[in-house]
Amino acid sequence: MSKLSLLGGEKTVTAAHPHYKWPPDADMLELEDLVAQRNTDISTAGRTGPIRDFEEAFLEFMEGRVKYAVTFNSGTSALLAAYFALGVRDGDEVIGPALTFHAALSPALILGASVRLVDIDKNTRCIDPEKVKEAITEKTKVLTVVHQWGHPCDMDRLVDIVRRHNLFLLEDCSHAHGSQYKGQLVGTFGDVAVFSLQANKGVFAGEGGILVTNDSNMHDRATLLGHYRDRSRDEVVSKDLRKYWVTGFGQKLRMSPFNAIVALHSLRAFPERKQRRHKALAYFTERLQEVDYIEPPYVATNVDMGAWYGYKPLYIKERLSNVPRPLLVRALRAEGVKVSIPSAPPVGTLPLYAENLHPLFPGKGWYRNDVESHPVARQIASMALSLPPFWRWPEDREIIDQYISAFLKMQSNVHDLLSLV
Question: Cβ of 1: how many Cβ atoms within 10 Å?
Fold first, then answer.
């Protein structure tokens, strides 16, 4: 192998940047629809126009296994509506994974709840069912599962746990559009499920989120939280809740029609993009088997990865003479590889979850999370790398091959790398 680029050698990766561009550019039909909406109506008072079209298309995407879909201006807003719909309130506890994006759980804090973090499974990176059972108390109301990076959780065991303990199950599918567990779509197991539509997601709106459920009362409560007046008047059926239609519950969290148009076109293009991504990442995973110090992402045989949100292999530093991860990343970047350390640390290390008092309501009781009790989450966070979830197959094959050459170059020049420690 040639000299490291970091030490003056030539770059291994010669493909022009960007190696990964997401979201893809809009086609002319999407742009025409956006222009037409601008000249028709730039607001949405109810479930009309592109909002209605996208929600109905999403219900079809969910194969008719959910009855209701409600859009919001972000996945975080949709999660807030979900916790509210489930009746989370002061004194309740929500159980969630110790390694995920904080917003999967933080909306519960606004409602006065505590969040009890539990460790994850090393392979799937999803919440560990055995640790869930240990964490349940008389205050537990909701189990939030996150299908991390698109890999479905162990839904058989988790559904059994919530049934045995009479808990609500919230599925955060923000990474997992189209993912399946034993042939069943994620988002169809829980009492309520939420999908983020943020710009980096497999189905994207720019900013947005969508909540799905089969429960009429939960649909009504979620609608009233973020959609006052027209939509609540037309959609809420509960006699006890309809009286709030004018005001809702005080929030305006609805999606714009422009975001709905983007989301609709993204949803229509998703099957073909998913297929191409799966082929590209299957090839990437196959080639990474040649790199001794990299462990490709695990995919169970009974799941479909759907959107494959992110590609996060593990760095086994003992197999590369304990070269520090930041130095490896620096050296790979010098070779032209788009690589980084994942930006989401263990949730319990964030001040929002680590204070001695409830961060929003200091006078209230609070379950203080101890990161030392989440060894797997800490281990994964210390080992993971973030690489592009390539999707332009077969065009990306050349870039993937060059990335593998760069990884192998690290092995051949490990002594030079160590000289930089």
Answer: 13
| CATH topology match: 5-24+270-342+384-418 vs 28-266 | no
Confidence at residue 1, expressed as pLDDT on a 0 to 100 scale: 64
The SS3 assignment for 62 reads: coil
In whole angstroms, give the CA distance from residue 388 to residue 273.
Answer: 15
ω into 18 cis (within 30 of 0): yes
Strands 93-97 and 114-118: parallel
- Contacts with 418 (C-beta within 8 Å, 6 or more apart), sequence order: 321, 323
Residues in the chain: 421
Q: What is the mean pLDDT of residues 197-225?
A: 98
Structure tokens at 373: 């009790």
Domain residue ranges of the chain, discontinuous segments joined by +:
5-24+270-342+384-418, 28-266
* 102-149: pLDDT as tens digits: 999 999 999 999 999 999 999 999 999 999 999 999 999 999 999 999
Other Cβ atoms within 10 Å of 204 Cβ, number: 24
Quickly state the pLDDT bin for 364 (edges 50, 70, 90): confident
Report the CATH fold assignment for 5-24+270-342+384-418: Aspartate Aminotransferase, domain 1 (3.90.1150)
For domain 28-266, the CATH class is alpha beta
Token pair 């593990």 in the structure block, residue: 314
**CA proximity to 49, closest of 202, 310, 258, 361:** 258
Q: Are 153 and 128 in contact (CB under 8 A)?
A: no
Rounded to the nearest angstrom, the gap between the alpha carbon of residue 223 and the centroid of all alpha carbons in its chain is 23
Is 407 in contact with 291 (CB distance < 8 Å)? yes
Helix (H, G, I), strand (E, B) or coil at 38: helix
